[in-house]
Model the fold of this input.
Amino acid sequence: MRTKQNQYFEKWWIPVLVYLGIFAIFFIGAKLERNWIINFSGILVIINFLASIITGIRCIKKGKWYFIFPIMGVGLIVVVSTFILFAIGNIDYYGANKKIPENIKIYDPYNFSPKSVKYLNSNSGLRISGYGGSYSFYIKHSFKEKGNFYLKAYEITSNERLSEKKLNKRLYSVNTLEEKLYKGYFKIYEGSQNYQYAGRIELWFKPLDDKDEYKVTEQNFKITGWESSW
Done:
């Protein structure tokens, strides 16, 4: 008695139907704006494509080589379409279903100007400006010792670390203990410009004498993700 697994490899139309089902899963994920569903459909495409090759080989052995065309034709269309939607479309729904808390103090970097008199005359510390995942930071601070500082970013509701590897590579030198306005830029890669979510940006300091690093300050901001296809 043939198992269901064998039936998959014996009947040419089953892989085709599976491809159509996977494509439906992809569009459901896009409609619900869920990254995990979209990523899951991508994995299924690869698995079904490899399995359909086996089906095609069995069709050839049975003399039914003409079934290869619908199997591999639909397979190539789905694989290429998926590649285009993932690589070129750069779909990222991170932040789409995240709510910005209402009970916290949070700044909008889009409305911030580092040249404003209010900021220059204050001791407000860390601020950022920008939009679309690309931001400039402004740190008005007098450090207690010389060393290097860097930024950490978190999504507030889940406390998930954002763009960790990229931010860890950006170290900024501190060579004076006097108050100074430090400037730089960074990018947040999670999400896209269409979905704003709450992020916490932290300022961390690394002393020169191998002491433990420590957090200096933090602020909450409404942020979005960088889209490399721009």
